[in-house]
Amino acid sequence: MWELIKQNQRKSFVLFILMGGCLILLGYLIGSAYAPPDGGIAGVVVALAIWMVLSLISYFGGDSIMLGVSGAKEITRDMHPQLYNVVEEMKIAGSLPTMPKIYIIDSPAPNAFATGRKPETAAIAVTAGLLARVNRDELQGVVAHEMSHILNRDVLYMTFAGVMLGAIAILSQVFLRGMWYSGHSSSRYRSRSSSGRGQGQAIIMIVALVFAILAPIMARLLYFAISRKREYLADASAARLTRYPEGLASALEKISDSKDDLPSANAITAPLYIVNPLKNKGMKLSDLTSTHPPISLRIKILRGMASGAGYNNYQKAFSRVTGQHSTIIPSSGLKDTETVPLRAAGTTEAAPPTAKDQNRQVGDLIRAVNQFRFLTCTCGLKIKVPPDFTQAAFPCPGCGASLAVPAVGAATFAAALHSLTGTPNQKRTSSQR
After folding, report:
1. pLDDT category, 173, cuts 50, 70, 90?
2. pTM
3. Residue 74 a catalytic site member
């Protein structure tokens, strides 16, 4: 497995160097356009300084920033035993040295991502919408996919690639806006014309202008190319960890069918999610500019692994489904001839919830994440008390009984999860909606 990780990192490092080349060349051209003839060196220094500062911020606080931007809140085993147990199972299956922290995002859009600069400080975040829509096998597939990103050392690399993309975008925007608002290029051109160097300076300015427009596009394509390949590899690794590719395939199907938006996601953070979270924001992304491989292909490949859950099985399914002979799995992984048999599906304890029940469950999970208290009266009425309610008791709207309101804490989440197993047709009042 370590050979697989190292080879995957080496190939991705080449793309990372190409992005670095875009950044340095952009800095050089901008510096040359503004302060010839030695401004190019200064431009390179400024470009590297911007990248260095952003990289340091990303390395030491990138995971916290990502979780904060996403509105993720940490939970413990008591808050969601099933999720915690599934993460623990995949941590053991992947031989991860430390248990990742677990977060829930209060969004009805089903999705998940992993973050952290190294396995010892990793975190996995899932949305409330995902927990409400998937069964245990499907949840295990999603967690295994995110665990694979951690094991394959994808998270830190993608974070740094995103930071470099951001640095390129910043330089380009500063240069383009400066030209637009200050009219610097025209005055510079006139001042140089009198000295006989106007033509050469104009050419440099035009080249810098064109590259400032094209560099972010090229860097974004490289960034997306890195992301797409790593998604395939994480799918393959997840199938191997769970030995049940159908679990992940079914989860991907449910996530892609969702019409809910994830407002906290943006173009830079999108590649970290298991499914492109921008798909419902009116963006019609082609395969070239998409942060993820087509969902339909990912599902077909996973369901094409009929003979086993090993890397070789995934590569064969990939070639058969896509008709491509390119290797998604590094050669070191394909040399592993170990047979990884498929396991049977887990037992289903209950019938799938209806759409109405799913919406109710998502709402309850989101309320639980936001510290609502859940009370159940002896008359059967369920009441959801907001976190800013400070009184010690609440009168039941149904029978008038006085119900003790617990303090905000872990027990609140446990009570919410217990309430999700209640009968969906129970009487409800406005206090529950």
Report:
1. confident
2. 0.77
3. no
Number of helices (H), then strands (E), in the chain = 14, 8
Angle, CA 309 vertex, CA 305 and CA 310 arms, to 5° = 110
Residue 182 burial by Cβ neighbours in a 10 Å radius (0-12, 13-18, 19+): exposed
Contact 311, 240 (CB under 8 A): yes
Q: What is the CA 119 to chain-centroid distance, rounded?
A: 16
Q: Which residues pair with 115 in a beta bridge?
A: 123
Strand-pair partners of 402: 395
CA distance 350 to 362: 18
Tell me the chain's radius of gyration from C-alpha atoms: 26
pLDDT confidence of residue 119: 84
Amino acid sitting at position 262: L
Residue identified by tokens 């302060």 is 35
Is the N-terminal amide bond of 245 cis, ω within 30° of 0?
no
Q: Which two tokens stand for residue 286?
A: 């082609």
Contact 115, 70 (CB under 8 A): no
Quote the Cα angle for 138-345-323, to 5°.
70
Q: Return the structure tokens found at 241.
A: 């960890």
Domain segments of the chain as ranges: 1-339, 355-432
Cα–Cα separations (whole angstroms), residue 332 to 17, 144, 152, 257, 291: 23, 21, 14, 35, 26
Could you tell me if 90 and 234 are in contact, meaning their C-beta atoms sit under 8 angstroms apart?
A: no
For 42-59, how does the pLDDT look when each residue is reduced to its tens digit (9 = 90+)? 888 888 888 788 778 777
Does 273 have pLDDT greater than 80? yes
Whole-number Cα distances in Å, 244 to 95, 322, 327: 18, 21, 22
Residue listed under structure tokens 């991907």: 252
Catalytic residue among 146, 246, 338, 349: 146
Q: Tokens 């969004």: give the residue.
A: 107
